[in-house]
Every structure is written in structure tokens, then in C-alpha cells.
Amino acid sequence: MKFPGIYYAYSVILAVFGQTITGVHLGLLAVNLISTVILYLLARPLLGAAGAAMAGAAFIIMSADTSVLGLFAHATHFVVMFALAGIWLLQESSRSKRRMPLLWGSGLCLGLALLMKQSGAFFALFGFLWVLYGALRRRPFSWKRLLLESGSLAGGTVLPYAVVVALMAYQGVFDRFWFWTVDYARAYASEVDLKTGIQLFESGIIPILENNPVIWLMGFAGMIGIWFTESGRKAAPFLLGFFLFSFLAVCPGLFFRQHYFVQLLPAAALCAGAAVWALEKAAAKYTAKPKAVQFAILAAAVGFSLTGPFSTGRILAASTPDQFSRSVYGANPFPESVKIAEYLRKNTKPEDRIAVMGSEPEICFYAHRRPATEHIYMYGLMEPQPFALRMQEEMIAQVERSEPPFLVLVSVSTSWLQRYGSEKKMFTWLSGYIHNYYQQVMVACIYSDHTLWLMDKDAEYFTPRLGSSQLIVFKRKTAR
């Protein structure tokens, strides 16, 4: 349901770093480092060197935390990179004689943030409101200048989406593009009620605050301390406005998943930097060396906050990738997907397609094989939304038409999130389809402390237990 910009971004990463697990992580590292540099450049004119250093350090620490799934390349990381670039250019435009080109570039970056994920629209909205705020503060007020500035920003913002719409139409898939990114996305975003949303917010935000308490306390202190000086009051509307719209970017759908909060981290980091800056101003009244006080506070804050990364580092050093995945994601079959993909890659041809009945598209990535259906996640098919039955019927038709040589059934509850009112047509079809055309050749039974693997004859006669978690690989029967 995301706009396709994120898939283009992933394609660039895989082209540069390789289509491997390591390549994905290197790409995320590069994106996070770029975001940190841009955040520093944004903060430096507002908060000084120490405040900007605090903001950069805070973002690095928080964005790599497991509480926001920071070690995994989610779309929100890419939203942040382009949004920060757009906001930085927006600020630079106010200090430059080349205001219109910079505003257009700002809009282009904000448009790319939107193209990564729809929540990027809130950063674009902040950009427009900031231009309006600046125009209203200028004397004399000029409608002509406001229209030119907002028009330049709008032109850049709209361009990426317009190009994608034209491309989708040219490729003949505009109807599918519109269904996934507008029709279904709208239905998806209306599933959670306000009461449930508040509960989800609490469960999401508490670990984030607990894992980096010093940074968040400094952030809240910075929101208050920034008002105590004249220069601080000039920067306060930007910092608080940016924080507000960053928070709104976390809210669509009221799901409040862990990685959604990545979009809030740059604003929180800027507020932490504001605390260091405010403390320097306060110290200047009592000491001749306010810079020394400022850097001492910076060093202490970063030092206390490094306990989280060091703790994660010790866990990573003492764990295998499989063990670390289990500690973060529980019984989700990410480790098993790698081994199953290796089996599929060895036993299929490059042009073959594979059917994954579950929300494990990484199996296709690891196997370097295309999926038999566009429905690579099962969640939408199980949700109480008006398109669920239609989507199930589409998936059934696509799999039957593809006749994949292998079918992987993911019998893990978190891979489906089936509910009481979920449509059941696909399960009825799947049972008969597997019975008629496939036989079991590989089984992974997931237990809390190990995974039991069964192959060939052992797998063929395996009967899954109700409530257990397993992945079952089926091979298409030879036609008689």
C-alpha cells in the first residue's frame, strides 16, 4: 500500500551493495549516516556546534535502538532522510539569495519523502506552513512573494508523484497502483478505533522512552528551555512545529508500530540539542566558560545514553543472527526462511515462480525467485475491510495460473493475523489445491529453543499439531 518510491530506493541499495542480507544492512547504514549529517547541518545554525552535535549523536543512538526496530531497513528510515533534506533546504532558503531554486529543491525532497510512504505528507505540510509563517512575519507582507515561494515549493513536491502516476499509466498498471495506494490504503487506515489506538501508542512509546531516558528528558527540557532567551524564542516555533508534524507522521491509522516512531526521532534529537544550547546560555550568566559547561553536558548526556548501544552490541557479539532475530521477533520464521530459500533456489530454475502462503516475501528475495502472486502479505486478506474477499480471489487466480513448482505454507499466527471475522475462502481453496497438486518435501517446526527440520519421506508423513508454528514446503506432483 506504500507509494512505489520505497521500492525504487531499495533497488538502488541492492544495485550498489548487492542483493544480499549484508547489502540491505549496508544500505540502511548509509541512509542513517546521511540523515545524521543532514540533521547536523540543519541544527548547526539554530543550536550551535554543541547543540548540533547533541542532535546528531541523539539521532544515531535512538535510530539504532531495537525499540524502534532501528537495525532493519523500514520505509520510515527513507522518509526521514528525504524529509530532513527538504527541511534543511527550506531553512537554507531563508538565508540565501537563491531562495526560489532552494525552495524547489526542498519541495522535491519533501515529495520524495511522500513517495517513500504516505506519512511523508506531514513533513510536506509542515514545509508549506513554515513558508506561510515566514511570509506572515515579514513586513511588508507580499501576496506575490508568498505565491511565488509556495508555488516553487509545491512544484518540487508534486513532481515525484506526478512522474510516478505517469509511469504507472504508461506501463498499464495505473488501476492496480490506485487500488493498492489509495482504495486499500484508505480502508487499512480506518481499521483501528481511537481507544485501541491510544493503547497501541502507550505500548509503543513506553519502551522507546525507557531505552533512552536521558535523551528524551533532555528533549522535553529543551522544549521548555528554548523559550528563556530571545534567540531561543526565535527558534522555538520551528523546533516545536517540526516536532508536532513529526508526531503526526507517526499517527496515520493509529497503529503506532515500532518503526513508525523513527519519523519522530530527528525532532526529538533537535529538542535534546536545544537543551544543551539552553544550558550554555544559562551558564553564561554564572561563568566565563559557558562553552566548557556546554561540552561537559554534551559529553555526559552522550555517555549515559551509550549504555543502550553497548548493551545491544554485547548481545550481537554473543548471539548468532538467528538467536538475535528470535530475541527481537520471537517465533517469526525469519531464520527458517533463509534455509528454505536455499533449498528452493537449488531446486528451481531462475524463471520459476514460487508461492508463499504467508507474509514472508523474504523467502523470494533469498531464493532470487519471483512470487507467484502480487499478494506477498496475508494481513490485508485477513483484515475486516471491504476488499478482503476480492483480494483472496485474486490471489487464488494468480497462483493457479502460475502453477508454481513449489508452494510454501507458513503456519505461524503472526504471519496471518487471522481474526474472528476474517474471510475463509482462501483456506478452503488452499486445502484442496495442496491435496490435489502438491506433496510435502520439507518441514520446519519452530520451538522456543530450536527448530526441527524434516526432509523428504519424514516430511511427507508429518502431521502439523494444532497451534504449533511451522513452515511446510510442498513440491508440485508430477503429471501422470
Query: What overall form do the CA principal axes indicate?
Result: globular
| DSSP strand content | 5-15%
Instruction: Assign the structural class, choosing from mainly alpha, mainly beta, alpha/beta, alpha+beta, or little secondary structure.
Output: alpha/beta
For the biggest sheet, the summary is: 6 strands, mixed
Number of helices: 20
H and E order: HHHHHHHHHHHHHHHEHEHHEHEEHE
Helicity level: 55-70%
What does this protein look like?
With 480 residues, the protein is an alpha/beta fold. It has two domains: 5-315, no CATH class; 330-476, no CATH class. It contains 20 helices and six strands. A six-stranded mixed beta sheet has the order 2-1-3-6-4-5. α16 links the parallel β1 and β2. α2 (21-63) runs parallel beside α11 (265-283) and α2 packs across α12 (290-305). The protein is globular. The two termini are 41 Å apart. The relative contact order is 0.09.
Write the topology of this structure.
Elements: H1 5-17, H2 21-63, H3 75-93, H4 99-116, H5 121-137, H6 143-170, H7 174-189, H8 194-211, H9 213-225, H10 230-250, H11 265-283, H12 290-305, H13 307-318, H14 321-329, H15 334-346, E1 353-357, H16 362-367, E2 370-371, H17 379-382, H18 388-402, E3 406-411, H19 425-437, E4 438-446, E5 451-455, H20 456-460, E6 469-476
Parallel strand pairs: 1-2, 1-3
Antiparallel strand pairs: 3-6, 4-5, 4-6
